[in-house]
Amino acid sequence: MTADADTMTKFLIIDDHPLFREALHSAVTLAYPDAETLDAASLPEACDILEGESGFDLALLDLNIPGVRGMDGLLHLRTHFPRLPVVVVSGHEDPRVVSQVIAYGAAGFIPKSSKKAALADAIQKVINGAVFVPENLAAAGEAQLGAHARAMIDRVSSLTPQQLRVLGMIRDGLLNKQIAYELQVGETTVKAHVSEILRKLGVHSRTQAVIEMSRLDQISDLDPADPFGNAVG
């Protein structure tokens, strides 16, 4: 798809900052003047939109939205809407975060400090089928992430959508009975999911699984750069 097909292009911007939503709107309009663009200020609002409407070509997601830990927002979208390409647009410019984002299936990473023209160019590249990562961050991320974190990210990425849902509930402190109720399945099914999650993650208990996920969260919970320094320039 190219700019000539912009009437067919539909975007969802997921960010709780009105100023940056406006900046992304401006970048999208620069790349695709006739595109349809919807906003969501939270993950639940985004999911409501995605469940109620179809035809989205790309979601632009801020990692650091309220009520979301670490990569949970990205994982949730990848789990519940697997056909929707998601680009993370974030003030977290640590190369390890970038590597983690791509490993979890994002279609790209765009720093919030990017100029409007750079944002527009990156959006076009993703719409045209590329996975976009700034050159200065891509190689550095692999080098800095660390073998243990890299291995754990790969293990988490091997989980099925249902297993990711169960892992999220484990992290929220839900018991098997509660998970079974939420998923409307039997406790035996939940126990099987938990056992497979622990096996895939290479841990021996639910507590260890939570600890490992919390360690990954710490990578993406670093203080983000000022998201508005250059974003609308």
* Strand proportion: 5-15%
Work out the oligomeric state of the chains in this entry.
single chain
Low-confidence runs: 1-7, 222-233
CATH topology type of the largest domain: Rossmann fold
- Report the count of strand segments: 5
Q: What is the succession of H and E elements?
A: EHEHEHEHEHHHHHHH
CATH H-tier superfamily of the largest domain: Response regulator
Average pLDDT metric: 82
Measured between the Cα atoms of the first and last residue, the distance is: 26 Å
The assigned structural class equals alpha/beta
**Proportion in helices:** 40-55%
List keywords for this structure.
2 domains, globular, Rossmann fold, alpha/beta, Arc Repressor Mutant, subunit A, 10% strand
Describe, in plain words, how this protein is organized in 3D.
- There is one protein chain.
- The protein is 54% helix and 10% strand.
- It is built from 11 helices and 5 strands; from the N terminus they run E-H-E-H-E-H-E-H-E-H-H-H-H-H-H-H.
- It has helices spanning 18-31, 43-52, 72-80, 95-103, 116-127, 135-145, 147-157, 161-171, 176-183, 187-201, 206-220, and strands at residues 10-14, 36-40, 58-61, 86-90, 108-111.
- The longest helix is centred in the last third of the chain and has 15 residues, at 187-201.
- It is globular and about 50 Å long.
- The two termini are 26 Å apart.
- Mean pLDDT is 82; it is low at 1-7 and 222-233.
